């Protein structure tokens, strides 16, 4: 505590008196808190710089308790039919070269495979062996290998934007476990979207395997179907009903341009001035067969 010098008060009659003496606490600098603050600032600056200057993709492979990485060559001894075609896969372009590739092949998605190899391909065992210490585990901890088909979290580790899309109101039931990423994508062979790329079949074949009513053929087809289902739908999820990429007639007007002539709204050369107030293009009782029709060229039904 340090003492503050007294302040003198002067009265009208000429006499003076010292003001009451006040004491102020002496400020002590805590060097530990200062050092901690400095380290925190330095750490934040390091993280910002490292994230901005990194020249490679940083991936954390899935973990399996008690397992270690063995390399993709060990996987090829049993899964030759998969590893043989993997060089044609889109995912194969992500494989690192040299010593960096040791644990970034198959095991970057399926986790360290030593327990899987030692158990001769068992998917689950009653005991997970750590060096010199066998430990009994239960549930997911008993797995010897990670199967992304059963849980999309492994895919989401890299495809972060898709994780966000599957949180939107309208999405395919992947988070619910009813389908998996592998139902539409093939990570082991060819283009990542099944039937896509240079294959003779279009990407629509992946969709119509489940959505059979939209397969056709139709006498009067919707030209957008030639472009692909993703012209109107986003299969991972959107805020719009039926996973549409845009809301209501806004979606249709991307291709079917709107013109205003003489107070009339023309779409496709036809006056839609009164029809637009009835609802969307497909819910207003006009173009209900938007995927194709067998009887009407305007896709009315």
Please describe the structure with a list of short key phrases separated by commas or semicolons.
301 residues, alpha+beta, 3-stranded antiparallel beta sheet, two-stranded antiparallel ribbon, 10 helices, 21% helix, extended
Provide a short characterization of the protein structure.
The protein is an alpha+beta fold. Helix content is about 20%, strand content about 10%.
| Neighbour order of strands in the largest sheet | 8-9-10
Rg on CA atoms, Å: 33 Å
Hey, roughly how much beta strand do the residues contain?
Answer: 5-15%
What order do the helices and strands follow? EEEEHHHHHEEHHHEHHEEEE
Count the DSSP helices: 10
| DSSP strand tally | 11
Mean pLDDT: 77
Model regions low in confidence, pLDDT < 50 over at least 5 residues: 11-17, 19-28, 126-136
Sketch the major β-sheet. 3 strands, antiparallel
The termini sit apart by 90 Å
The computed structural class is alpha+beta
| Helix percentage range | 10-25%
Shape: extended
Give a structural overview.
The chain is an alpha+beta fold and 301 residues long. Among the domains are: 72-147, no CATH class; 150-218, no CATH class. The chain is 21% helix and 11% strand. It has ten helices and eleven strands. The protein has helices spanning 31-53, 72-76, 80-83, 107-110, 114-118, 153-156, 160-165, 204-208, 224-227, 249-252; strands at residues 2-3, 8-10, 16-18, 23-24, 127-130, 133-136, 220-221, 258-261, 264-267, 270-271, 292-293. The strands form five sheets. The protein has a three-stranded antiparallel β-sheet, with no helix packed on it. Strand 2 and strand 3 form a beta hairpin. The longest helix is centred in the N-terminal third of the chain and has 23 residues, at 31-53. The protein is extended and about 75 Å long. 14% of the residues are buried. Mean pLDDT is 77; it is low at 11-17, 19-28 and 126-136.
